[in-house]
Amino acid sequence: MSEAERARFWRHPAVPEVDLLKARYVTHRFSRHVHDGYAIGVIIAGVEEFDYRGSTHRAGAGEVVLVNPDAAHTGQAGTAGGWAYRMLYPSVAAIGEIATELGLTYGTPHFPEQVVRDPAVAALMDRAHQATERGDDLTASTMTRTLFARLLTRHATPRPAVGLAPEGARAVRAALDVLHERLVDPPTLEDLARVVGARPFPLLRAFKEATGLPPHAYLNSLRVRRARHLLRSGVRPARVAAEVGFTDQAHLSRHFKRVVGVPPAAYQRAAETYKK
């Protein structure tokens, strides 16, 4: 990471099921990937540009970015000077718990707009994020919960159904199960199609429509997701690479940073710090 770029990733014990990132990027580019939870942030300076399910979005200073779970997206500088932001990555369970407390019983919440201008929410997000940096547990937990509640009441809707034919949806669900089980030894597209009872090209089209990614890219997202869990558990990066199916530690580092925004070693150091 160049001197002009800096990033810090952590999980504060007072804010369970929520990871945090504070970063400034200029040349760094996030590869197309998905998160199993939400990605919610506020732009502090500059402009971030990102593709979200085939549409390009630009978010400037003071705007809020809302990325839904399992939605394929990228991330890169929208201007020559890059961008700075504060991000929160709450799990589906964390957001779902607050939705239930608010009486929102329509299932998994969904944010239909990916960039919103809401000064009150942006200011609250900035204060909540800074409270976790200071280690102010009561303020951090109170403001973060208030932030998510405000986002849900102002900007969330019921999650829309995926418009796949039943047979295509069945094949995709089965293919996802296979990829989860075979991180280290994944099948070819032809073998994957054969296992789930589909033809290769129809499966590829249905898979991309459902996830926004082809199977090999989705597999790398799964590997990074598993790597994060192992790193938080204290497994060294070299061993993590082998356990999730990357050829070596350099291969892990390259994919990990393109998805998470920091290298595996930095991610693990942050996790160890907040265990103490």
Automatic annotation (TrEMBL):
<dbReference type="InterPro" id="IPR050204">
    <property type="entry name" value="AraC_XylS_family_regulators"/>
</dbReference>
<dbReference type="InterPro" id="IPR003313">
    <property type="entry name" value="AraC-bd"/>
</dbReference>
<dbReference type="InterPro" id="IPR009057">
    <property type="entry name" value="Homeodomain-like_sf"/>
</dbReference>
<dbReference type="Pfam" id="PF12833">
    <property type="entry name" value="HTH_18"/>
</dbReference>
<dbReference type="GO" id="GO:0043565">
    <property type="term" value="F:sequence-specific DNA binding"/>
</dbReference>
<dbReference type="Pfam" id="PF02311">
    <property type="entry name" value="AraC_binding"/>
</dbReference>
<dbReference type="InterPro" id="IPR018060">
    <property type="entry name" value="HTH_AraC"/>
</dbReference>
<dbReference type="GO" id="GO:0003700">
    <property type="term" value="F:DNA-binding transcription factor activity"/>
</dbReference>
<feature type="domain" description="HTH araC/xylS-type">
    <location>
        <begin position="173"/>
        <end position="270"/>
    </location>
</feature>
<keyword id="KW-0804">Transcription</keyword>
<protein>
    <submittedName>
        <fullName>Transcriptional regulator</fullName>
    </submittedName>
</protein>
<keyword id="KW-0238">DNA-binding</keyword>
<keyword id="KW-0805">Transcription regulation</keyword>
<dbReference type="InterPro" id="IPR014710">
    <property type="entry name" value="RmlC-like_jellyroll"/>
</dbReference>
<dbReference type="InterPro" id="IPR037923">
    <property type="entry name" value="HTH-like"/>
</dbReference>
